[in-house]
Amino acid sequence: MTVNGVASRSEATVTGETVGRVLGTQAASPLSFWIGLEPGKVVQLDDVVVTRREVPGYGPVLVAGVVTTVEARHEGAAYDSDVFLIADGALPAAVVEVAEVRVTRVEPEVFVPPLPGAKVYLASSGDRDQALYFDVMERRIPLGMGRDGLPLYVNFDFLDGTRGAHVSISGVSGVATKTSFATFLLYSIFNSGVLGGEAANTKALIFSVKGEDLLFLDHANTRLDDAARRAYDRLGLPARPFGSVHVFAPPRPNDPNGVPHVAARTQGVSAFYWTLVEFCQEELLRFVFADADDERAGYSLLVGQISARLKAWAEPVGDGGAVMVRGTACRTFSDLVELLSDQLQDDESRPEWTGAQTPLGTVNAFLRRLRSAVRPLAPIVRGDLPFYRSHSISTSDAQVSIVDLHNLPERAQRFVVGVVLRGEFHRKESSGTARPLLFVVLDELNKYAPREGDSPIKEILLDVAERGRSLGVILIGAQQTASEVERRIVANSAVRVAGRLDPAEATRSEYGWLPPAVRDRATIAKPGTMFVAQPEIPVPLAVAFPFPAWATRPSEAAPAAVKTTQDPFQGLPGAEDDVPPF
Q1: Where are the domains of the chain?
Q2: Which candidate, 417, 310, 391, 322, places its Cα nearest to that of 573?
Q3: Is 480 in contact with 170 (CB distance < 8 Å)?
């Protein structure tokens, strides 16, 4: 029999362990019901259970759901103090355990409530897959293990732009393991086989803002034990580090040779910076003013006008990336700022730069903000290094490109994130195709796309959230507080993830996708446990992802493996210490 194009389970059988029956003292509906547990039987939160009902004209209808509440009480007690009499045997009473089940799937879609007294079973593997829609996921990505020890998945259609895109991860810093889950999700995508022949060309761009913990993704984790390896086996994933990684780091301050500013890693690291020529020609001045406060200050129009003048008037000088602007040579960012200061404070030259009658107060506010950028941006905007040397951040050198920002001040971090994201987004736009995909992992999203105010970076991130799906740019954003992130970015995330949440933050409307019981659980979740919501499944899944097979800090990093196979990235900059490819 077929109902609405879906074949019914005419020979439906439930082979799992019987745990109880549908209660008659609580109203059952097609969306939720309660079960009374048989003596000696136990269910816990997140268990998947099934029951069925014979419906005239349709046959057997399977009702499956997830346990969301478990309660135990004395039946027969009238007062709180009765517990002591019952414990002493002086008062007859029975211990009763009940559980609430939130329905996830009805097959076929005949929305009738289960009948009181109907047997309820723990879902077997086939029924579990059906209850959680895993049976209809043609391309599924392992997320981790459920509380039953079996794999849980996410539909790749909601990650690659086919039916949705983008991931939003929220949780308390240092406890929610947001970055660890983001890297595991990337690893699962690259190694699960869903990419097929596109795997080698699919890229990931990771912005690292917290120490050097992410700089060793291509090194095996020395703490990986046999239990963790078995978890990877159950998920169908190899237990190994990322295969092709290139790290980009800023030059050391005041270093004339542009040596990357990293301490623990010495190979596969390239210094990145922008020459003054690039700064002027690509109109990067607007990213110096990438704070939301800059937009409110009223000099955003002035920034655009001066950027246009620099693009028109700046000429390259020598081979170090220096520029000549109106007869003055600038070899450092400080030189350029001093030139602009002199020109804008001169009554005769100021109108040529501003293009209109601009209040002197606005010009002075612009200059104060610009001068404050000299120190943070001087190491990464310069004209004193050989122009021909490689200095650009590129995702073409390796499968995973890591941009290390932790040694940069926050002002410089904003500049780098904005400029790099703009460049990659424009590159994908000009390619004319969404494939291969580019995954962008950005922590502290609330800093770059705050709910209030505007900034150049926020505009780019909004573009990524709203148009990135069609261009093949997938954002994996992490933040402590989703309530402080631009609503449209969170709303465009097809997959939402929460780790350990602050109790006050958990009450915000941005976590409405978490049922009340799950929201309470999120405030006590242990590191490594995440609650994942995806469009196909009506309830979020509690996921425990395995211990990383790659080093998550320098102290865990094993020596890089020696290549024994041909690496498709071999010979490219930064690939010297890669382990064998995927």
Answers
A1: 2-136, 177-271+394-556, 274-382
A2: 391
A3: yes
CA angle, corner 151, sides to 149 and 157, nearest 5?
A: 160
Please, what sign has the CA dihedral across residues 327, 330, 335, 336? Answer: positive
Within 254-402, residue ranges assigned H as helices are: 276-281, 292-296, 300-313, 333-345, 350-354, 360-371, 374-377
pLDDT at residue 569, as a whole number: 38
Q: Is the dihedral of CA 47, 51, 57, 58 positive or negative?
A: positive
> What residue has token string 């086996």?
233
pLDDT, tens digit (0-9, with 9 covering 90-100), for 2-55: 333 333 333 344 457 899 999 999 999 999 999 999 999 999 999 999 999 999
- Exposure class string for 290-313: b at 16+ Cβ within 10 A, else e: bbbebbebebbebbeebbebbeee
pTM for the complete prediction? 0.86
Phi (first) and psi of residue 344, to 5 degrees: -80, -20
Fold annotation for 177-271+394-556: Rossmann fold (3.40.50)
Position 15 scores a pLDDT of 56
Does an H or E element contain 426, and which?
helix 410-431
Residue with tokens 């995440």: 530
Distances in Å between the Cα of 366 and the Cα atoms of 127, 346, 360, 553 are 64, 15, 10, 41
Task: With CA atoms as reference, report the closest residue to 303 among 287, 281, 326.
Answer: 287
State which H helix or E strand residue 320 sits in.
Answer: none
State how far the Cα of 457 lies from the Cα of 463, in Å rounded to an integer: 10
**Which residues are within 8 A (CB) of 273 and not within 5 positions of it... i.e. 6 or more apart?**
250, 251, 258, 379, 380, 381, 382, 385, 391
Cα–Cα distance between 62 and 50 in angstroms, integer?
7
**Rounded Cα distance, 187 and 369, in Å:** 41
Strand partners, 20: 37, 120
Q: Which CATH number fits domain 2-136: 1.10.10.60, 2.70.70.10, 2.40.10.170, 3.40.250.10?
A: 2.40.10.170
* Residue 186: per-residue pLDDT: 95
Find out whether the peptide bond into 573 is cis, omega within 30 degrees of 0: no
How far, in Å, CA of 455 to CA of 67, rounded? 44
Residue 53 has φ and ψ, to the nearest 5°, of -145, 135
Q: Say whether the peptide bond before residue 450 is cis (omega within 30 degrees of 0).
A: no
Distance CA 230, CA 236 (A): 10
User: What are residue 93's phi and psi, to 5 degrees?
Assistant: -165, 160
β-partners of residue 476 are 167, 441
Distance (Å, rounded) from C-alpha 317 to C-alpha 579?
A: 41
> Residue 85 burial (CB < 10 Å; 0-12/13-18/19+)?
middle
pLDDT at 582 over 50: no
